[in-house]
Amino acid sequence: MTDERPTTLLAELTHRCPLHCPYCSNPLDLLRAEQEIGTEEWRRVFSQARQLGVLQLGLSGGEPMIRKDLEELAAHARGLGLYTTLVTSGLGLTRKRAEALRGAGLEHIQVSMQDADPETAERIAGVSSVKQKQAAMALVKELGFAFSINVVLHRANLDRIGEIIDLAAGYGADRLELANTQYYGWGLKNRAALMPTREQVLHARDVAQDRMLRYKGQMQITFVLPDYFEQLPKACYGGWGRYYIVVGPDGTALPCHGAYAIPSLTLPNVRQHSIDWIWHESGAFQAFRGDDWMKEPCRSCPRKAVDFGGCRCQAMALTGDAANTDPVCSLSPSRHLIDEAIQEHAGGDSYVYRQYATEPQGA
Amino acid sequence: MALTPDTVPHLWRLARLDFDPARQRPVLLYPEGAVLLNDTGQAILELVDGRRTVAEIAAELGARYQADVSTDVIEYLSRLAERELIQ
To answer: Which residue numbers in chain B have pLDDT < 50?
Structure first.
């Protein structure tokens, strides 16, 4: 049990997406349209989440614009008082739909941008997309949404971080999230092709800090060093089962979007259980809550209430045991795995693109 | 932004005040974040309307509470200004 209430629900409405970015945060085993839960189920999930204390809702995917009921879901969320962010590639965000979303009370749209250089941007996305994204961003601005741009950073675009920031400011974004690639699922599969050099990362940080001052009061910029290049692990979502709930396209509920990869978890589903039960009672949400599950060096570590031993999914992916210390931590006996991975920047540039094992019709 | 008594503060365009029914607390919501407020915080932020100065907000609350709250008001708003929630 926990007395803490969740603050954030990430609703991954679909895994379908026109883009094929090699660092996609969706699981390797992508779900298809016929596996997705329906409008009524999502409405119920939002209502239950709000009742439990959720304040922030992310409508994400895949590409959430593919869901025809997006406007209805956004309206329901607004009616509940949730602060809702649409997380989109921009593809499918036509004027008609953008106006409908505005009418539904949607407050915030976050559009992804792959690079400042159109050619590289489309190589990363694996599809022609830059013109459509530009049109979508202009609409977001014109219609007065709170407007964020999100850029995933990696070896192929880090050196253009200054141009990326200037471009985002030119689009009129209120916020710019510069997110270094996280190596789970697709990102882990493509790690050698995405991994930057330390010099690239440190240079990018300096440029970002300089631009933060330049654009102060106009555009908020967030830039966090990638955890591989730190000595201490990140407190993943502020701790397991503390603030955050993810619900996937088929109604599977997870404490973080990478938790699919931890085989010992029995993940609950909103088709069978309420959000309240999932939060308070399900084994998956309790598995790494608090510190009873910790082993050394975490158990006796003074930072255990600060970083919670780091990321469970990263411990699982790299050490084979989700209860181990995140190998990013300099105290982890497996830190050498990270140091070796950082050397992978000499790897090739060809990506394994995100896609279904066999592409379904109409995806 | 350094706040002075003459500053006319306004909420960040992306933030809004709301009431959280689950926690029974006023809350300031903005993209990817939320600040749970106490009654004092709510009383201050409700007067942040882009028209009143910091001094006027403090005077109005001071009259309401029969006390000099000007230091409290400027400190509270400055903390939010550091996070760019007040501009």
So the answer is: none
Q: Residues A317-347: pLDDT tens digits?
A: 999 999 999 999 999 999 999 999 888 766 6
Q: Is A50 helix (H, G, I), strand (E, B) or coil?
A: helix
The beta strand positions in chain B, using DSSP E, are 16-20, 25-30, 33-36
Task: Report the b/e string of A292-316 with b at 16+ CB within 10 A.
Answer: ebbeebbeebebbeebbbbbbbbbb
Task: Give the one of B20, B30, B87 whose C-beta lies nearest to A217's C-beta.
Answer: B87
Looking at residue A1, its pLDDT comes to: 41
pLDDT band at A362 (very low <50, low <70, confident <90, very high): very low
The one-letter code for the residue type at A293 is W
Cis peptide before A62 (omega within 30 of 0): yes
Contacts of B85 in chain A (CB under 8 A): none
Contact A55 B1 (CB under 8 A): no
Q: Which chain B residues have a beta carbon less than 8 Å from that of A81? A: 18-19, 21
| Angle subtended at Cα A236 by Cα A232 and Cα A240, rounded to the nearest 5 degrees | 125
Token pair belonging to A171: 């689009």
Nearest Cα residue in chain A from B29: A83
Flag whether pLDDT at A139 surpasses 80.
yes
Among B14, B22, B29, beta carbon nearest to A51: B22
Q: ipTM of the predicted structure? A: 0.89
Q: Is the pTM of this model over 0.80?
A: yes
- Does A108 sit within 8 Å of B34, measured CB to CB? no
Chosen from A51, A55, A87, A147 to mutate, greatest number of chain B CBs within 10 A:
A55
Other beta carbons less than 10 A from residue A336's beta carbon: 10
